[in-house]
Amino acid sequence: MTTVTHVQPEPLPPLIRWKFSWIFIAGIALLIFTVNDERFLPTEEALWLLNWVHVFFGLAWTGIDLFMGFLLGPILRRLDPRLRRTVSQELSARFFWIFPMLSTVTPTAGWELARRLGYLDVGYPGFYWVEAALALVIVMAVFGLGILAPINLWVLWELRKPDPNMALVQKLMRIYLAVTALEAVLQLTTIVIMTRFRLGL
What we know:
By secondary structure, the chain is mainly α.
C-alpha cells in the first residue's frame, strides 16, 4: 500500500516587514525633535543639529540613489532569476521604509533650516534659487512617496506568491532603478544649488 504524503505549501512571506519600521519611526522622531530643538538647546547647537540632520539624511538619500541606480542596477540585471528574486525581495522590504523616511526628513529639515537662516525672506532674484531648490525637492518627494513606495509594495506583493511573475518584477525593478537614478541626478543638481546658498544669495 502506497502512502501519499501531502507537502504543505510554504507560508507566504509578509507583505510588509514591520521589523524594519524602526527605520521610519527613528527618522521621523529625530525630525520632530530637531524641528523643535530650539526649545531644548541653545540657538547655535540647535542650528548645528538641524544642519547635521539635513546634510546627513540628504547625503544618505543621494548615496543610496547613486548606488542603486548606477551600481546595483546593472548587477541585478545579470543575476540568476532566483537570486534576483531574493535580492529584489530583501531590497524592497527595507526600502519600503527607508525611501519615504528620507524623502520626508530631508526636505522638511531643509525647509526649517532655510527658515532659520532667513533664506525664505530674501528678495528676487536671489529667491529664484530657493524656488529652484523647492521645486526639485517636491519632485523628488513625489518620486519617493508616489512612485518608489507603490512599486516597492507591488514587488513585495508579487514576490510573495508561490509562482511570481518574474517578468513583471524585472520590469518594475527597471522602473524603480531608473527613478532612483533620475533622483540621484536631481539630488546632484540640488547640491549645486546648495553651494549657491552657502556662498550667499
